[in-house]
Write a structure and sequence with these properties.
Belongs to the aldehyde dehydrogenase family. By secondary structure, the protein is of the alpha/beta class. The protein is built from 15 helices and 22 strands.
């Protein structure tokens, strides 16, 4: 183990199945590297179908007792988990930076963000309620009851290795559902550290399982199992569509948080300084590897040059460096393929007439460190107009009229997040209501928080996480009819 931790027990090279820390039944292991250096930081079990079935069986066995606990009791367990996560922010941040690459400050920020879902759903556990519907007969009563959907599966990506797990598992546990988590094979250690803290918080054996390994066999077993009643997936649209097909045979409940292609629109009447500051947050968080990152920056004629100049100044202050180097603001991308895709998008844009307007200094060694760039003259025939770049590239598209800006923003098969900047209230409502996205922000680059529903439309997904909607995804509605009452 190469990561220096205060609480070294948080770095675990075992899967967590039925309350036991285990290797794969096949004995196979998988190396995990540090994206900044390529050095192997550890190995995890390369679990397969048998291990996944064991986790599903453990979850099934744990379900009746967990569901039978009172909501307040489950909430208390989640409150303890929340406190333990916060007690260990520094170690969890180090583990995340080592396996994912993001700067330490961002990693610690993600841990606090991840913890916020645990706290929120601890509170929501006690707000699951039903109703009574006026019946068509005088001697009938109709009660609407909420019940946990059952054993749930969570498949999560590498870009937010902690928050995507708590955003799914905290509502599941709060609702009374046991979960089987399959983290990305590139970032399993954050998931295992969270499992360790869940165990210490008193989550019973079998209620929270983490199956590490390559995706196909684990995903196949989770989706084929009739015991698993719900799949929540965050990742690419391609894999989401595949998993949706795989879930069809067992008619599972599904929710999908998929890819995005967020527009960030700066109108002539915007406060340009606010637009620049929030474009920096929205575009360059996690080196651009965020599903809600602004992928396309659309700027109206009147402020285009001013916005480009101010953004260039801000970009020049970015520091590209390994995440554990003090002051690093842009870490490495997750792997060489990700860096190649970013390079290909930039080359494609330049070959179609874009200009390299500005770039950040980049003295980091290694092929995974992409240089943050601003491209002016971006147009819709470029790859980055439709594909998620998932890297630190800010392409500036120019538009003249409001209508043109909205049309350009919606010209994508995705519909996750959209940001826009204006000081005009009338325009604010006109634009917000026409943008095709699950989340729209006016004069802000921040839309991800536990209190607000998170999710997309079009090819960006189905269902919502966070807010009260997040726990509803793990609840079934039962209508209980009581007829023939002697009144
Ligand atoms: N909408 C959101 O909330 C959100 C959040 C984070 C990331 N994302 C999206 O995720 C993508 C980046 O993440 P990624 O590269 O890890 O995505 P990915 O789809 O390649 O992988 C996501 C997860 O699915 C697993 N997986 C891959 N193939 C599988 C299969 N055949 N069966 C079962 N599991 C399989 C992976 O191992 C990983 O755990 C981007 O498109 C990004 O926009 C979306
Ligand atoms: O990659 C997208 C995730 O949903 C991260 S966040 O919730 O926007 O922080």
């Amino acid at each position: 183990m190469t990561i220096s931790l205060k609480y070294s027990a948080l770095f675990i090279e075992r899967a967590f199945i039925g309350g036991a820390w285990v290797g794969a039944t096949s004995g196979a292991t998988l190396p995990v590297d540090n994206p900044a250096t390529g050095a192997i930081i550890g190995t995890v079990p390369d679990c397969g179908e048998a291990d996944t079935l064991a986790a599903i069986a453990a979850a099934e066995a744990a379900f009746p007792a967990w569901k039978a606990r009172t909501a307040a009791d489950r909430a208390a367990v989640l409150e303890r988990w929340h406190a333990l996560i916060l007690d260990n922010v520094a170690d969890l941040g180090r583990i995340m930076t080592a396996e994912q690459g993001k700067p330490i400050a961002e990693a610690e920020g993600e841990i606090r963000y991840a913890a916020s879902f645990v706290k929120w759903f601890a509170e929501e556990a006690r707000r699951v309620d039903g109703g009574i519907i006026p019946a068509p007969e005088a001697n009938r009563r109709i009660l609407v009851m909420k019940e946990p959907v059952g054993v749930s599966a969570a498949i999560t990506p590498w870009n937010f290795p902690a928050a995507m797990i708590t955003r799914k598992c905290a509502p599941a546990l709060a609702a009374g559902c046991p979960v089987v988590v399959k983290p990305s094979d590139m970032t399993p250690f954050s998931a295992l550290a969270l499992a360790k803290l869940a165990e210490e918080a008193g989550v019973p054996a079998g209620v929270f399982n983490v199956v590490t390994g390559m995706p196909t066999a684990i995903g196949g077993a989770l989706t084929a199992s009739p015991v698993v009643r719900k799949l929540s997936f965050t990742g690419s649209t391609r894999v989401g569509a595949l998993l949706m097909r795989q879930c069809a045979d067992t008619i599972k409940r599904v929710s999908f948080e998929l890819g995005g292609n967020a527009p960030l629109i700066v109108f002539d009447d915007a406060d340009v300084d606010i637009a620049v500051a929030s474009a920096m947050v929205s575009k360059f968080r996690n080196a651009g590897q965020t599903c809600v990152c602004a992928n396309r920056i659309l700027v109206q004629d009147g402020v285009y040059d001013q916005f480009a100049e101010k953004l260039a100044k801000a970009v020049s202050a970015l520091k590209v460096a390994p995440g554990d180097v003090p002051g690093s603001t842009i870490g490495p991308l997750i792997n060489a393929a990700a860096a190649d895709k970013v390079k290909a998008h930039v080359e494609d844009a330049l070959s179609h007439g874009a200009t390299l307007f500005a770039q950040a200094p980049n003295e980091a060694a290694g092929d995974r460190f992409a240089t943050p760039v601003i491209l002016t003259g971006a147009t819709r025939n470029m790859r980055l107009a439709e594909e998620e770049t998932f890297g630190p590239v800010a392409p500036l598209f120019r538009f003249t009229h409001e209508e043109e800006g909205i049309e350009l923003a919606n010209a994508t098969s995705y519909g996750l997040a959209a940001y826009f900047y204006t000081e005009n209230l009338h325009r604010a409502f006109r634009v917000a209501e026409r943008l095709e996205a699950g989340m729209v922000a006016l004069n802000s680059g921040a839309i991800a928080m536990e209190v607000a529903p998170f999710g997309g439309v079009k090819m960006s997904g189905l269902g919502r996480e966070g807010a009260h909607a997040g726990i509803e995804e793990y609840l079934e509605t039962k209508a209980f009819h009581i007829a023939g009452l002697k009144l």
